[in-house]
Structure to design on (901 residues):
């Protein structure tokens, strides 16, 4: 019996041993000297660029794909430069656009890029069944909105066609001077319908996906890591680094620990609390990005329906004090366009002035401050937002002797509150989808779903439409200045607080790490020092 | 069927099957744990084989102990429990403010309409509920709203193995350290050894896991540079997470075991064993321990299910690609199918471990009969 037991035992161990295979290492057998190691904040929700909406997915897509145009990162105003589109021109009224497609560009499976791939992608983006969140990005195209709503079924009715020379002709619903800027966005990148139809939802798996960027997707180990590899088919200069290994790590302190242990080469979005000591590191870098932090006023809720009250509150908040308290390098702004972007105006907006603020509040009928109602300040639960809310609360008490009650809510609950019953003051931020003032100003028009203030001004709407239709850059700048003046000086439905700054740690072995105002991390020019 | 037990030969045969399946599943489990710890991936076939052995063990054991009706009743009850949980979760999610597609950059109504149509969210709630239940009945937990193109089953099957791996290591720490420490402390009652072990145990119970993690990282990664601060790759990566997850329950088990052993150690039958001249080691481990494990077993139900279904904090701090973070993030994202899928899984594991614990009561203490 003992012999039988021993035999069974031995057999079990043999079975177990033969049923096991050696696990792949977290570095996936890559040579570290050829691999840039970065952290991804989250598992990319999708690599289907017509459906991706988050920054992590976009950061991967920007490296494995390219669009019609790209930003010229050497130009402070981020002008456009050719990418898959070699050149483009517009009709006089900026309504019909012609894009010449670069010849000889190959997808990773060797198929040549054509204008049809753009049409396929945009039709898919706009097809109701695709349910793409960024479908509205292309609503400027003739019949696009009606097609996305299902009112028009035939995709051929979209304002998209190819001329005899193989150029893409886009007809817009209305003139749009900044239309090419939209084509730098991932949702507008070309696509291969044959691949998508063949593999369905699995078309973005490494074994199926077909791309045409400087890198191609090699490994996607869900919830753990992604590996990008230099693409041999890329039309441009080959990448300097052979591989990019992106570890999916949600916790910033963990990423910092790994950076210190030499297992990660670059980190972005450093935690504010760690900035004071991280700034001392030689690996620390910072740069401005096209994003603003602002406070919105619910102009439909008394006493914020009174312009004098809005003005008084705006004048009683010292933005400098907020940015100083945050100690994160953010730049206080009075205008609506972030620092460094075309349309940025330094001198617009109301200044911090306690005396005038008090006078305005008196004039608004609140000479007796005890009659001023308690106002509510809403924000989503976050340490930094909490600090700002408390600071504003203290400033308004100190400067105007009014009481502010602050209330935090979980993110989705907060968004739902903003839709149904916004508080008197609420905080929000905006990051550029594309570097044009329209992206920032359009959100405050009467038709925008992002305008939670309840404020409507037909004159402002008109200015934005006019500016969008104007091709002359100088004239556009003048129109945007006028529009900004309405929101930050005349009507004040919002109070811009600061223009954002991004903080990074980049290992000394990394050269040319991309740092740009759009926060696009395109790694093709990164070099690793041996 | 019960006639089986009337025949001595058949009884012996059943006994052999119980022993064989029990030991096989136990040994496969232990050797799989060892293999995975030293950096091997255990094949799904082996896991299935182990599950088959375990089920065979419990079925034969149930027959032998005349508990078949009891187990059938409990399994039926478990299905009802899961149905109630699914219904309550489904209802609560629909009542929760904020929808899955609310975001800082608000979407136009027509875009939202397309998305809602895709996920059948435009249908009446009762239709959605029926859709969901019929999906579950066919083993389809639906597609995640957040991770486009990935089904809930995909997410669970990709992350659960890592969570289970970490959980099993942590459980080993619990039982391998907790029980002997408790027995030893009890055997040296009121001595300095007892006091030291109990002080450590109290610290283990009270220290929050994120603090233990920070201390371990500071010592072993930053100062000594012995262990990597995060990632999930091999023995050196497993040590800190398993300690962080295992220390607290190990401390609780040590305290429970000590209290229970102290109670048993003073009973009459132990005095009899001592008077027979049995060595103290035999008395402790053969007579005292087995009878002292009932409270530990009671605690093990929720412990095992809790540890096996993941720890958000530990997985987050050590970047373990497990399921824990999805439990929290799915709620933040209002990813209804993922929340429902994970809630059901967690509930199923809890119900199952409680059932197993109840069955094991009679194994450890034959006086307990379940019917």
């Amino acid at each position: 019996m003992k012999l039988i037991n021993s035999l069974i035992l031995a057999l079990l161990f043999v079975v177990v041993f033969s049923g096991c295979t050696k696990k792949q290492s977290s570095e996936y057998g890559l040579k570290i000297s050829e691999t840039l190691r970065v952290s991804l904040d989250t598992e990319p929700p999708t690599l289907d660029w017509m459906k991706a909406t988050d920054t992590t997915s976009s950061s991967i897509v920007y490296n494995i794909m390219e669009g019609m145009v790209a930003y010229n990162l050497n130009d402070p105003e981020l002008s456009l430069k050719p990418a898959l589109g070699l050149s483009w021109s517009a009709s006089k009224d900026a309504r019909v656009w012609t894009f010449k497609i670069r010849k000889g560009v190959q997808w990773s499976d060797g198929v040549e890029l054509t204008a049809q791939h753009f049409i396929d992608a945009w039709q898919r983006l706009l097809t109701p069944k695709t349910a793409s969140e960024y479908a509205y990005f292309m609503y400027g195209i003739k019949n696009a909105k009606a097609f996305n709503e299902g009112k028009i079924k035939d995709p051929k009715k979209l304002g998209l066609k190819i001329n005899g020379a193989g150029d893409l002709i886009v007809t817009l619903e209305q003139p749009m001077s900044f239309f090419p800027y939209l084509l730098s966005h991932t949702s507008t990148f070309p696509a291969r319908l044959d691949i998508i139809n063949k593999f369905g939802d699995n078309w973005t798996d490494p074994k199926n996906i077909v791309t045409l960027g400087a890198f191609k997707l090699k490994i996607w180990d869900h919830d753990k890591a992604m590996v990008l590899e230099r693409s041999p088919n890329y039309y441009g200069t080959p990448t300097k680094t052979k591989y990019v290994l992106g570890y999916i790590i949600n916790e910033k302190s963990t990423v910092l620990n790994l950076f210190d242990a030499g297992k990660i080469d670059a980190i972005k979005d450093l935690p504010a609390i760690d900035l004071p000591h991280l700034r001392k590191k030689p690996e620390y870098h910072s740069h401005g990005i096209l994003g603003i932090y602002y406070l919105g006023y619910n102009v439909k809720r008394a006493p914020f329906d009174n312009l004098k009250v809005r003005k008084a509150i705006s004048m009683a908040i010292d933005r400098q004090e907020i940015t100083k308290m945050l100690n994160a390098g953010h730049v206080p702004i009075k205008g609506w366009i972030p620092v460094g972007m075309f349309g940025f105006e330094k001198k617009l907006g109301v200044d911090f002035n306690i005396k005038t603020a008090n006078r305005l509040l008196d004039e608004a009928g609140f000479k007796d401050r005890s009659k001023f109602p308690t106002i509510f300040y809403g924000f989503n639960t976050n340490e930094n937002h909490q600090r700002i809310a408390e600071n504003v609360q203290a400033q308004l008490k100190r400067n105007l002797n009014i009481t502010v009650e602050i209330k935090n809510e979980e993110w989705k609950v907060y968004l739902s509150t903003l839709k149904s019953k916004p508080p008197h003051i609420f905080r929000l931020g905006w990051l550029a989808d594309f570097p044009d003032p329209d992206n920032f100003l359009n959100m405050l028009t009467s038709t925008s779903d992002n305008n939670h203030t309840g404020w409507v001004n037909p004159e402002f709407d008109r200015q934005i439409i006019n500016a969008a239709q104007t091709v002359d850059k100088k004239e556009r700048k003048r129109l945007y200045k006028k529009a900004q003046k309405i929101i930050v000086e005349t009507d004040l439905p919002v109070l811009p607080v600061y223009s954002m700054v991004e903080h990074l740690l980049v290992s000394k072995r990394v050269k040319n790490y991309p740092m740009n105002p759009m926060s696009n991390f395109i790694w093709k020019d990164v070099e690793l020092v041996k | 069927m019960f006639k089986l037990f009337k025949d001595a030969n058949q009884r012996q045969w059943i006994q052999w099957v119980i022993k064989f399946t029990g030991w096989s599943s136990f040994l496969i489990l232990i050797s799989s744990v060892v293999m995975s710890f030293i950096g091997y991936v255990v094949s799904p076939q082996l896991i299935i084989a182990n599950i088959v052995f375990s089920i065979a063990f419990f079925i034969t054991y149930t027959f032998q102990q005349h508990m078949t009706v009891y187990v059938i009743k409990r399994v039926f009850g478990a299905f009802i429990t899961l149905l109630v949980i699914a219904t309550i979760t489904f209802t609560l999610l629909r009542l929760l403010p904020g929808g899955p597609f609310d975001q800082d950059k608000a979407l136009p109504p027509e875009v939202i309409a397309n998305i809602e149509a895709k996920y059948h969210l435009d249908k009446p709630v009762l239709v959605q509920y029926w859709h969901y239940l019929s999906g579950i009945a066919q083993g389809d937990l639906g597609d995640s709203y957040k991770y486009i193109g990935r089904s809930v089953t995909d997410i669970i099957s990709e992350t659960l193995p890592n969570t289970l791996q970490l959980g099993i290591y942590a459980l080993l720490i619990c039982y391998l350290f907790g029980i002997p420490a408790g027995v030893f402390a009890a055997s040296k009652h009121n001595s300095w050894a007892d006091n030291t072990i109990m002080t450590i145990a109290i610290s283990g119970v009270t220290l929050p896991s994120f603090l233990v993690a920070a201390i371990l990282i500071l010592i072993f990664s930053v100062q000594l540079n012995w262990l990597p601060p995060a990632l999930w790759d091999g023995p050196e990566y497993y040590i800190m997470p398993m300690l962080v997850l295992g220390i607290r329950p190990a401390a609780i088990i040590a305290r429970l075991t000590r209290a229970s052993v102290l109670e048993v150690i003073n009973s009459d039958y132990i005095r009899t064993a001592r008077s027979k001249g049995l060595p103290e080691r035999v008395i402790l481990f053969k007579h005292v321990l087995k009878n002292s494990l009932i409270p530990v077993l009671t605690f093990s139900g929720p412990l095992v299910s809790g540890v096996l279904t993941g720890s958000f904090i530990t997985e987050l701090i050590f970047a373990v690609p497990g399921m824990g973070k999805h439990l929290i993030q799915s709620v933040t994202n209002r990813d209804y199918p993922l929340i429902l899928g994970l809630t059901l899984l967690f509930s199923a594991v809890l119900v199952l471990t409680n059932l197993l614990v109840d069955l094991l009561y009679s194994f450890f203490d034959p006086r307990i009969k379940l019917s």
In short: Chain A touches chain B through 68 residues (CB under 8 Å).
